[in-house]
C-alpha cells in the first residue's frame, strides 16, 4: 500500500528548504528576486490601472501576482509580492511608490519627534497580509513561500532621504551626527520589520528574507556599530519563529561575514563577489545567488555556461540556492528565465 506524503512533509522536503538547511538536494533550487513584476506580461495586465501600494493591499491580487512566476517557471520558491515600504504605509506613514522611481516619502524623518510619530506595527495594521499569505500557502502546496522585510538601514534611507538615493548622504549624516535620533529610528524600523515578518510566518510563510539592499554603502566598522545590532534584532525575532532567514544586500563584498553573523542561515550574494570568495567569508552557512542579472540578455549558451560556473562554485557551500545577484531587470525576456530555471533544475549534481 502506498501512502501519500502529507503536504507539510512535502514542503519540508522541498529542494529549497533542504538547501537552506544544508541537506543534500535533488537539484539546485532556484528562484529569482523580483521574479514577479514588470518583466511578465501577465503582471502588466493585472496591474493595469492599479497603483503599486494598492495592489500590495489587495489579497487576491497579491496571490495572483505571487503565483505568476511560479506557474510560468516552476521555480523552487515563491517570494511574497509586496514592498519593503508597505509596513510603513500600513502604520500610516505618508508615502507612495512612484512608477520608475520607487518609494517617495512625503515628510522625511529628521527628528526624534518624527521617529516617535511613527506607530509600531501590530497584526491589526495588516489583515490583508495575513489573508494573502494564507491564500498563497493553500495554492502553493509543496512550494515554499518566502516572506520578506526591508532591513533597518535600507528602509531608513527611504525615510530620511525622502526617496531613492545613491549616496545616502542625509541618512549617513544622521547616523554620524545625531546618534540618538538614529538609534531611535533604527529601533523603530527593526520593530516594525520583525512584527511584519512575524505576521507573514504566523500566516504560513516558510522562510524569510531581510533585504538590506543599500548596506553596501557602509564601511564594516560603521555597519558593526550603527546597523548590525538592529538587523540582528530582526533576525533574532525571525529565528525565534523557527523559519530559515536569508540576509541580502548589494555591493556587500566587505560585509558578507558580518551579514552572516548578524543571524542569517543563508547569505545572499550579489554578482560582483565571486561565490567562492563569498563562501569563504560566510563560513558554515548556506549562500544564495549570484548570476549577473544582465546575463539573461546574453546568448542562451553564454548565460547557461555562466550559470554552470555559479552552480559548480556553490558546491563548496553548506547549501546553495541559485538566484540572480539582484532583482530581475524589467526588460528581461521571460523565456530566457524559463530556460535558466530549466537549466539549473536539470544540472547534474
Ligand atoms: O518578486 C519579488 O521579488 C517580490 C516583490 C518585491 C517588490 N519590491 C515589488 C516591487 C520585493 C521583494 C521588493 C523589495 C524592495 N523594494 C527592495 C529590496 C530589493 C531590491 O531590489 O534590492 C527595495 C530596495 C524596494 C524599494 C523599491 N520599490 C524600488 C527601488 C522600486 C523600483 C522602482 C521602479 O519602479 O523601478 C520599487 C517598486 C516596486 N517594488 C516594483 C515592484 C514590482 C515596481 C513597481 C511597479 O511594478 O509598478
UniProtKB/TrEMBL annotation:
Signal peptide: none
Documented EC number(s): 4.1.1.37
CDD domains for this protein: URO-D
Reaction equation(s) it catalyzes: uroporphyrinogen III + 4 H(+) = coproporphyrinogen III + 4 CO2
Binding positions for substrate per the UniProt entry: 34-38, 83, 158, 213, 326
Places the protein is found: Cytoplasm
Keywords in alphabetical order: Cytoplasm, Decarboxylase, Lyase, Porphyrin biosynthesis
Pathway membership: Porphyrin-containing compound metabolism; protoporphyrin-IX biosynthesis; coproporphyrinogen-III from 5-aminolevulinate: step 4/4
Enzyme class: lyase
Residues flagged as site, Transition state stabilizer: 83
Domain Uroporphyrinogen decarboxylase (URO-D): 29-38, 146-162
Matching HAMAP family: URO_D
NCBIfam families with a match to the protein in the record: hemE
General function of this protein: Catalyzes the decarboxylation of four acetate groups of uroporphyrinogen-III to yield coproporphyrinogen-III.
Name this protein carries in UniProt: Uroporphyrinogen decarboxylase
Species lineage: Bacteria, Bacillati, Actinomycetota, Actinomycetes, Propionibacteriales
